[in-house]
Amino acid sequence: MRQEMKRIAIDAMGGENAPKAIVDAVLKAKAELPEDQFILFGDEAQLKELLPQDDPQIEIVATTEVILDEDEPVKAMRSKKNSSMVVAANWVKEGKADALLSLGNTGALLSCGIFIIGRIKGVARPGLMPTMPVQSSDDGFNIIDVGANATSKPEYLVQWAEMAAYYAEKVRNVRNPRVALLNNGAEYDKGDDLHKAVYQLLKDSKLNFTGNIEGHELLTGKADVVVTDGFTGNAVLKSIEGTASVIIHLLKDGLLNNGVKAKLGALLAKDALKTVASRFDTAKYGGAVLLGVNSPVVKQHGRSDARAVYYAVKQIDKILTEDLISAFKAEFSK
Amino acid sequence: MRQEMKRIAIDAMGGENAPKAIVDAVLKAKAELPEDQFILFGDEAQLKELLPQDDPQIEIVATTEVILDEDEPVKAMRSKKNSSMVVAANWVKEGKADALLSLGNTGALLSCGIFIIGRIKGVARPGLMPTMPVQSSDDGFNIIDVGANATSKPEYLVQWAEMAAYYAEKVRNVRNPRVALLNNGAEYDKGDDLHKAVYQLLKDSKLNFTGNIEGHELLTGKADVVVTDGFTGNAVLKSIEGTASVIIHLLKDGLLNNGVKAKLGALLAKDALKTVASRFDTAKYGGAVLLGVNSPVVKQHGRSDARAVYYAVKQIDKILTEDLISAFKAEFSK
């Protein structure tokens, strides 16, 4: 636990609803987090118009460039030196801020995390970890890595599992989190060489390893932490999001275009549909965390509204309060 | 195109609804397929009770064992020599039947396909290929491999793409099918070494290669054939099925447990929900085909009803009519 002021660097220009949604989120969060400092990086004129004057909790750092979603990540990080994201990352690197939040280009943010803020000594590869919903409760589960790495080695996955389990315990308050390995079958000898090796390493670790988990079990709540290689994790995360989106789209379409009877039905079924939507609402878990770098880096969805950004700010405050980075540094520099 | 009689070997004991659903499906299909012969392998007494006597299109082959879902695949194939699945596979191998259908243990069926029926000469590795639904039409798309191989090499994926594209064209009547590679980004240089190599090989092939596809785009109908390594494909297929199942479960739950208002809403919204369910009904596409073995081997879901089995029978008839195996043999033995 740390007591001093927490300074959160926020890329105010990333995402579809920037900077309005981001400013609104900060204004909502700051009252609840009186010991936090919010440093907003972005277009000075736009930010000044949205923010109250002389708020002691809020600082604006004027930047002149924005990294776009279509920009090539590493190239953008290197060439757009005065972009809101890169300047914010540099503030974190220089110790002028303690954590970084962005809704912008995921690849560029990963690059800023890995190349500017830097890997924790002893961590082989940082991994990206969102919190996903489960069917029967609001607990959710963590899955790591979902795409920071195209190629993975056994030792990476074990470190990801350790960091994610620690996160689940400290930030999500899950006691003795159940850790599972995403694999193509339940038995210990399933998978390719990578996953067979990881199974053994996790089995021999101090983690509460519960064995393999298969794709269809992910949302059932069978595990609190799922570890996977970055290639498979990326495909699985996007497939889950894509499937949920297609089904909800079809459902809305069917309800709206099937005449008066269906429209009436939809009105009446509204509460039930809301329950489903709320279970699949991942905004409440905050954003995806890049674990294994020297300061917390959180990526929230580009289409996030103020509410989603607010949860990401609260999430970062909790990560800083529990001082995860110091724990990781102590663990991996051994 | 082939003209002679088509003899379909059917494992009548596999799946939750065996043998009743399987017999019902055969009885429905046989009238529409007068030149097909159905050879049912299973418990003689049970089958005789369900089947009409002396039907010239139907033959029963008595077997005494059944491979269970919990059996270890290769071991079961080797030890349960008188099981409905193994005897049926041997009939195909010996030329007494032209194709194999089972609802049983997937791993065991893959083993029967690969080790008993055998690889086509020149095919490096057979791949398992289901047809999945797309959002905006009833066309669906094929995805290969979804789990016959835990480890994949570039040349496997290219052969799978070639076989799947041929299937899409001949069996699903898709003209010049669009072939895409499941990857972790849109650009040509995305992915690990395997997927980068496959991208180049597909680009240089005669296939209508449209580039990379990401997990969230799979159900959008952007591609007719998606090629992927067997490990990722397995995780993605199961994730899609799991997500759809969880959402539909939550929805039904919400509609039934939210009181009278929701129940009334559900009744009225029924047609709309049916539209969604029908779009996600994969039974109409038949089962998953093991491509690259010497005769068509089709796996239909273990929980299939008679209607799903009926579609798998029709699918096999079409595969035999279009003589896919001869085309593959000619192509890969070059």
From TrEMBL, chains A, B:
InterPro entries: FA_synthesis, Phospholipid_synth_PlsX-like. It catalyses: a fatty acyl-[ACP] + phosphate = an acyl phosphate + holo-[ACP]. One of its GO terms (biological process) is phospholipid biosynthetic process. GO terms for cellular component: cytoplasm. Its main location: cytoplasm. The keyword Repeat does not apply. Keywords: Cytoplasm, Lipid biosynthesis, Lipid metabolism, Phospholipid biosynthesis, Phospholipid metabolism, Transferase. Pfam families: FA_synthesis (PF02504). It is an enzyme of class 2 (transferase). It is found in: Cytoplasm. Its EC number is 2.3.1.274. Transmembrane segments: none annotated. GO terms for molecular function: phosphate:acyl-[acyl carrier protein] acyltransferase activity. Pathway: Lipid metabolism; phospholipid metabolism. HAMAP family: PlsX. PANTHER family: FATTY ACID/PHOSPHOLIPID SYNTHESIS PROTEIN PLSX, PHOSPHATE ACYLTRANSFERASE. Homodimer. Probably interacts with PlsY. Belongs to the PlsX family. Catalyzes the reversible formation of acyl-phosphate (acyl-PO(4)) from acyl-[acyl-carrier-protein] (acyl-ACP). This enzyme utilizes acyl-ACP as fatty acyl donor, but not acyl-CoA. This is Phosphate acyltransferase. The lineage of its organism: Bacteria, Bacillati, Bacillota, Bacilli, Lactobacillales. The gene is plsX.
